[in-house]
Amino acid sequence: MVLGLSAASTSYLSGFGAFSRAKESAATRRADAAVPAKQLMVAASPAEGEIMGQGPFGLTYFLQGALAGGICCSLTHGAMTPVDVVKTRIQLDPATYNQGFIGGFRQIAAAEGAGALLTGLMPTAQGYFIQGWFKFGGVEFFKVQLTKTLGEQSAWDNRNSIYLAAAAGAEFIADIFLCPFEACRIRLVSDPTYASGMAGCASRLVSENGVIGGFYAGFLPILFKQIPYTMAKFAVQGKAAESIYAGMGSEPSKMSKGGNLCVSLGSGVIAGVAAAIISHPADSLLSKVNKAGAGGSGGLMSRLTNIAAEEGFVALATTGLFARCVMIGTLTAGQFGVFDIVMGMVGAKKFHFTDPKNPH
């Protein structure tokens, strides 16, 4: 009997061992089968740092965008200095400069020499490099961060709002740095005898008015001018470019560099004209408040109110508008074109919104 029990036990243990080995073998096979599937899932997931199939977007990308923005704004605003001089003179003294846009060039050149058309070139180039650095770099930063925060589908659905929010935030920061340079530029254009250059103008403004009064008297007008301008500029350009690509049945990733550049230039003209019209009243107000004696001798808000009351909204919105549309339309197209060129030169590709439901 003992032998029988021993035999039965041995048989049971042998069977249990076989069952355990079979179970382990099956588990091993399932685990082995799961590895390729897991690897496939990893391979199919977005690469680290990528958004909408683009990127990665890190510090290097944002610095590249800032550099491209500084270069494109400095070059385009500097090149448009003669147009800006004529536009500013028409705004500040329409009674004298009453022969139209082309006539204004002739009047200034005849009275002061052709060199007068380059008045304010240095503060323009310097100021707009700094402004472009923070504006274009900031827009790219805020676009990417908002897209990460909202998620790809939500960001695509709300891309126009993202353009507007990114542009407003970046422009506010940029204007803090731009305002002193703009104050010097307008003072030199309105009174070429005020100082011999940027440094002398800045020093005299501070000594006569203090830092706030000298450099930031036009801060509110510049915010009212630049923030709506930049919001319209980036939102309209983004929408216009999207429409152009859709009309051609293409997209940035499928176009050549030359094709993308043409889209940037075309959409930039549309955006520039729209932005110029929207921001022109504040631009007129900014030009006048930085002119010596304009609006009386009271505080900033008192002076702004006096100027607005004296000029009227229609005059602020239309005086010099054609010249500014020419200037801003050309300038904005140039900015987006140069921005794309510089980004390509430094090996970066600008972030574009794409529909996650239709990956390409």
UniProtKB/TrEMBL annotation:
Which GO terms of type biological process are on file? mitochondrial phosphate ion transmembrane transport
Among the Pfam families in the record, one is Mito_carr
Q: Does the keyword NAD apply?
A: no
Tell me which UniProt keywords the record has, alphabetically: Membrane, Mitochondrion, Mitochondrion inner membrane, Repeat, Transmembrane, Transmembrane helix, Transport
Enumerate the Solcar repeat regions by residue range: 60-145, 158-243, 259-345
Which membrane topology describes this protein? Multi-pass membrane protein
Localization recorded for this chain is: Mitochondrion inner membrane
| GO cellular component terms, A-Z | mitochondrial inner membrane
- Transmembrane as a keyword of this entry, yes or no, is yes
Q: Name one GO molecular function term.
A: phosphate transmembrane transporter activity
Give the domain of life: Eukaryota
**PANTHER family, alphabetically?**
MITOCHONDRIAL PHOSPHATE CARRIER PROTEIN, SOLUTE CARRIER FAMILY 25 (MITOCHONDRIAL CARRIER PHOSPHATE CARRIER), MEMBER 3, LIKE-RELATED-RELATED
Q: Give the family per the record.
A: Belongs to the mitochondrial carrier (TC 2.A.29) family.
Q: What is this protein called?
A: Mitochondrial phosphate carrier protein
Source organism per UniProt: Emiliania huxleyi (strain CCMP1516)
